[in-house]
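Q: For a teaching handout, I want to show students what a protein-ligand complex looks like in token form. Below are the inputs, and the small molecule is 3-methyl-2-oxobutanoic acid. Please produce the holo structure.
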Amino acid sequence: MKNTVETFRRQKEQSDKITMLTCYDYSTAKLMDEAGVDSLLVGDSLGMVMLGYPDTLSVTMEDIIHHTKAVSRGASNALVIGDMPFMSYQVSAEQAVENAGRIIKEGRAQAVKLEGGAAVAEQIRAIVKASIPVVAHIGLTPQSVNAFGGFKVQGKSAEAARALIEDARIVEDAGAFAVVIEAIPAQVAEAITKTLRIPTIGIGAGSGCDGQVLVYQDMLDLFGEIKPKFVKVFGDAGAVMRAAFAAYIEETKSGAFPAAEHGFAADIDADVLRELTVGL
Ligand code: KIV
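A: Here is the structure, written as tokens, with 3-methyl-2-oxobutanoic acid included.
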């Protein structure tokens, strides 16, 4: 059964933790879906972990739509959320609705995510009015990396925590059905979770949230460049892949691969075969 916004609502009500992973391609989506993850986020983190940019700012609508199409085809049950790239919604509510619509219509996602609190409330309201479910994202919002002066933990002072709680209330009032809270103190995340009726999905926000999200390259140790403190490595796929690549190179160079069982036998008489190769 395909998960929906209603599944998220029920999960919060029943204290059933929501699981979300980022995903960017068909085969990984299938694996995650089969494992039973509740939701797949086609995050603009793809700019860093898939495309090699130093941040998420250069990700385009075309990038997100391309990857969302692939993930949607691989997700039978998981709710697919497409991330709205930098400058695809900040300009106006009209721009936000148009681009959210493309992620749903072309990417076949069931919801979109955008970064910001009070500053994007108008956009959230407009997108929800167009019948598109919205996940908000507050705390360390990577699209604001230049404004923050780096990827820094947010909400550490009482004043900043109060502002975050206010932002959370505003995005809920604007109609978001869930909110991602990134890199904030656990106590502040817990306060937000208790305040809101909609589920909170934490990343670097402690265990008091209604759910968790991780970038899959981080949890599989596939991306060595940035290692946030909040990441737990659940499996060393990086080591498995490196070993397999090395074995392939070694066996190909030595001639051990391909063996007879990896090839096809011709149904051709030996004399004819010899004739075929004469003069080669
Ligand atoms: O882009 C992304 O992957 C995200 C998650 C880290 C929440 O926004």
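A: Two things your students might notice: The chain is about 45% helix and 15% strand. Residues 240-277 form one domain.
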